[in-house]
Each structure stands twice: as C-alpha cells, then as structure tokens.
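Methods — Computational structure assignment.
A single polypeptide chain was analysed. Its primary sequence is given first, followed by the predicted tertiary structure written as structure tokens.
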Amino acid sequence: MKHMRHIVTKAVVAKGKKRTESCEVLRPPNTPSSILGCWVINHTCSSKKHGRYVEVTGKFDINVWYAHHEHSKTSVFTETINYKDRIKLHYRDKDTTGEEVHLRVLQQPNCTEAIIIGGTQFQVTVEREILVEVVGETTICIQVQDADFEEEWAYGEESSSSSSSSSSSSSKEADDSSSL
C-alpha cells in the first residue's frame, strides 16, 4: 500500500543575480597629466531581504596611480566608494518560512577603464557581479512503501573455478575416507 509523507526541509527557494557597471568621478589633489594604473581593493558587502528584493550594501577602495606636475612626480590617489544594489528575487516556492539570505560575489569590483576628464578629474568605470540565494523551509512529498517491501535487484548467476575445485576436493576426501 502506498503512502505519502511530507518532509519539511531547508532549500534554496529564491535566487537573484545582478551585474553592475558604474562610472565613478574622482577628484585628486593634483592636476593629473597621465594615469599609470588603477585598481580596486578592500571590497566588503552585506545583504538584507526586503520583500521580493535583496538590498546589497557595500564599499570598495579605488586606487589611481597617476603622474602630475607635467610628468615629474607620481602619486596614488585613494577614494572609498559606497554602493547599494537592489537585486530582484525569482522564487521557486511560494510559501516558505525561516528565510535567510546567502550572498556570493561572482566578480569582485574591477576597474575596466580609467580616463582623465576635464583635465582635473578621473572617471573610473567599475564592474561587479553579485548572486543572492534565499534559503527557507519548504515542504517536499515522498512516497513511502510498506515495511515488507523489498527492492528488486538484477543480478546474474556467477560461476567461479574456486567453487568447483573445492567441491572436487571434498569428493576426493569422501573417497579416501570410504577406503579406510
């Protein structure tokens, strides 16, 4: 007889992913003559669920190595950039409880372009990609069989030479004992 059981378990019930490209304008203390390098470091972020969205709040540092005073000096200019991303969730289950958000950075903030604009400022293009998963309690259904149910196994007959030699040796021993 077949029975159905409901199991309450934790599973990923919603996901969302967002790729962001932003242009940041930085104002260094010296008038730049050229950009020698640009990198993004010290990225941190956290998330909080708001309805059918997850809000990701984070910050990172942009470092621009540049020449100034007509290429006679170099400096590194650093600025911390704060951001908020709103990521829409796509649900698989409608009714869940005990939800928690798991945040994973697929691509750390990275400088894709850095240029001098207006002769005195840097425009830095930064890209990043974030994935959020919502884990919640959900119900799954399984079919339960009676206790005397045994799963059928497909296995074939095996033959081995060791079993035939042991039977021949036991028959030889029987012949020896009868002769005594």
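Note: Residues 3-144 form one domain.
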